[in-house]
Amino acid sequence: MARTIVRSSLALTPAVLVLHYAFGVSGTPTFVLSAIALAPLAFLIGEATEQIAEHTGPGVSAFLNASFGNAPELIIALFAVDSGLPNVVRGSITGSVVGTALLVFGAALAVGGDAPADRRSIALQAGAVVAATLLFLVPSVPGWHGDYRRHSLYVLTLPVAAALLVLYVAITTYNLRRHRAAHTAAPAEGAWSLPAALAALAVATAATAFVSDLLVHSLDAFGHALGLSQFFVAVVIVAIVGNAAEHGGAVVTARGGDPRLGAEIAISSAMQVAVFIAPTVALLSVLVGDDLPLAFRPIELVTMGGAAAAAGLLVANGRTTRREGYALLGLYAVAAVAFGLAGDR
């Protein structure tokens, strides 16, 4: 039933494109429809990569999930750079890390109940987010004084971005070796054919690009209509929409009887955004618009580092509980209120 609803919702993509380009609909209606349309697209990207994995094995699957599973966040960020909205970029990065480490992780534990946790893997990935937060201090601290968009901060960002990508490759390689499994030659019964899966992935990614463009360009109108800051819209709403695939996958997996895997999906997504998406956007920013320094505000650094630390400490005893899930959800609510009070830069 859930898959049927999601697949039916894919019709929103052509609908929002026709309304905008054929009938000139813009502003708040475009933002709302674009945000809703991105959710099923994110699920389709995630499902397509899983189907490709049936034919390619775990190694290529991990690469595809890193490259395309976070495609909505990456595409949204690049369009925001091109539109001259650095606050939206950094806000969506912050919101993705905090949202997956607290909101999604917490929801997975709350619906999954008490269960053992892969302490080593979660601690490693949470530690990587904390390390990324510390590295972000290099361009961030000088950015607290003067113009936070100046080129000298981007120069400081380059070695930070390179170090984060090296860290991402190291962690991904380590986890692949730990979780190495034999790949059967034949895909599971009912799996998509490889050409069909690749076609679905290509179409979903292209559609995500068009819808993300509309979302970014209508963000200001939506914020003004509701009296919300640009930063709050990016850090809460855009971040949740961009991570829809991971959100749904983690919670559904946990509710289906595997809270350990649900927790792993959530914290892995947080790590990917901090250690892979953020530096990638920074490096590509010069190709699509102005260069983007990874200069975050104190509230952004504190919430990212704090969320990762809370997730890592929570699994220190090798188990997770429903009560701990509720505690993480409460921490996310506190963070969301703080984001609302922070306003724009």
Structural key phrases:
about 350 residues, mainly alpha, 2 strands
Which helices and strands occur, and which strands form pairs?
Layout: H1 2-9, H2 12-21, H3 28-56, H4 58-69, H5 71-82, H6 86-112, E1 115-116, H7 119-143, H8 151-178, H9 194-217, H10 219-226, H11 230-242, H12 244-255, H13 259-288, H14 298-314, E2 319-320, H15 322-342
Helix pairs in contact: 2-3, 2-9, 3-4, 3-9, 3-10, 3-11, 3-12, 5-6, 5-9, 5-13, 6-11, 6-12, 6-13, 6-14, 6-15, 7-8, 7-13, 7-14, 8-13, 11-15, 12-13, 14-15
Strand content: under 5%
CATH class: Mainly Alpha
Which regions have little confidence, pLDDT < 50, spanning 5+ residues? Answer: none
Q: Please give the radius of gyration in angstroms.
A: 19 Å
Give a nutshell description of this structure.
The chain has helices at 2-9, 12-21, 28-56, 58-69, 71-82, 86-112, 119-143, 151-178, 194-217, 219-226, 230-242, 244-255, 259-288, 298-314, 322-342, and strands spanning 115-116, 319-320. It has 345 residues and is mainly α.
Question: How would you explain this protein's 3D organization?
Answer:
The protein has 345 residues and is an all-alpha fold. It is built from 15 helices and two strands. It has a two-stranded antiparallel ribbon. Helix 3 packs across helix 10 and helix 6 packs across helix 11. The longest helix is centred in the C-terminal third of the chain and has 30 residues. The model has no long low-confidence stretch (mean pLDDT 86).
